[in-house]
Amino acid sequence: MVPLAGILSPGFAPECCVGRQRIRPSHNIEEIETGESIREMKLDETFKLLALPVLGVLLLAWMLSRFGGDPNAGSRSAPFGIEVDPFGIEFIKVGGGTFVMGDSSGSAANSEELPATTVAIGEFWLGRFEVTQAQWFRVMGTNPSQYKDPRRPVDSVTWYDVQDFIKRLNERVKDRVYRLPSEAEWEYAARAGTATRYFFGDDQGALPRHGWVDQAGNVGTRPVGLHDANPWGFFDLYGNVWEWTADCWHDDYAGRPRDARPWVDERQECRRRVMRGGGWNTPPDLARSASRGSYPADLNDVGSGFRLARGGVRDKQAARPR
Asked: Which CATH code for domain 82-310?
């Protein structure tokens, strides 16, 4: 089991202004000997008017590449919709498919990720970003975070705290059912159709572009969405905060379900829950798509956060221990 020592709004919105300049000739029209100058001025005006929509299209294309990623990259099961809920939480709709979960290389160093297992995933929605402190405050009226900033992910929350948050959301938003993602759903979305160590390939040196990891000292989290998204448009899958999932901890994948259901123990209470993604001070090798960690469900470490899921499978809600 990977020990998790203390390990956070959506990006920035570029500002753009295009002004329309009015041309005022400095001479009397009668002084123009031919019509050439008038035609040139009209062509100049027409060019500027046509340029405005072109600039708008280019700006839109840039914003889509920066914030949404390529929805067709990586797999035929790519996401095909984005929705914002009443609390400002953005969700991406993920199409179903199959993938190999775990370490397909069979490395003994990653025994917790073995045996690699083919898992079938149904359609579901997943949070585009980690839940921020502002979103937590809107629902709970408090902010337990150590590294306070409304744009950063909420931290210092236990698994049971997250269940309380989800319960309140479901009470206030009747047409949606919120939950934590299962461990399989998390890895499926993180991989985004890839089979490499990271969703961008195997080059560990490129990790700083995609996640806030491997930071020394008590520097803490950063606002969500500052790094590049994965091919399906999800941000901060590597680093910032470890993300709670619905699954109980198991030492390896022997006997795990072959579908997206959370792997829980029906006969006894699950004291440890799986966490994914790594935190701000996690070494790069523990912030891979397949990397796993766990915490006691009642531990509120400064590196603990989460992202929400909706639809698809339902996790079994566990009562907070007395």
From this structure: 3.90.1580.10
